Amino acid sequence: MDEEIGNYPHAKLFYRPEEIAFRWCHLMALEQQILRDVRHLQGFPNRKFKQWPCLDQKLEILWDAIRNNELLYGSLGITVKSDETVDPRYLTIRHTDLKQWFNQYHPLDKPEFLFTYIERQTTSALTIDIYQALLIELEALKAQRDRNQLLLEELKTEREKLQQENIALLSRLRTTSPPSERSEKAYYALLAHSLTSCWDTRLEVTPIPPSRAKHRSSLSFWPTMQESMASRSEPWRISSQRPNAASPDQNETENCERCCRILRCETVPDPF
To answer: Which residue intervals make up region (Disordered) (predicted)?
Structure first.
């Protein structure tokens, strides 16, 4: 027992409760000074250390364990029966009994005067409740990992799809060249023909209101009301051909120019 006690700093064969509290709170260097300051306070456990709340806390824990027969105690180093009354001034606790009490009731708290460095680094034994709680937590973490794995796979698939679309767009951009002058002329001619056909069809079924007749002169390609009435028997139908019309090539060129002005946002009065 003497050899075992020699392996621990500030260890003794038995301790009084206040000596355990000093060692438990790491206040060994101030033990004598604190005891001198509270010398006028007699009797444990009624003595209070107001300036050192840690001492009061540890003493309350020790006395509670003694009263509830959780911690074996004795008188002047000799263990007594749990129901035997001992004067608090002579009450002592053996080193081995104190260490056993710490292992059972405070497994996470290992003071240096009771446990070696290796013992303090060793994980305490797991109880059944702790083991079951760890298993439940492990299963929950596994389920969360599976959900995150599925989400990760979906994100990877979406990223690959977007990458393929990006590659296709880049390839299309490289192979696409600006339209040639001939293509532009053909496009404008087709657009002019479509617009002219649309307007002619609308005029065939819709009479021109007198209030907008003043806009007719602004459209050089628009037939006048007199020309339409002279060329056809129906009073409200307008022919798409003018008398003495120009050649088809000239009409196409004029239509292209008009469409170009329209596309460049030049002002053209609305015939309707």
So the answer is: 232-252
Domain spans in the chain, listed from the N-terminal domain onward: 2-121, 126-160, 181-263
List CB contacts of 120: < 8 A, sequence separation 6 or more.
110, 112
pLDDT in tens, 17-36: 888 888 888 877 777 777 76
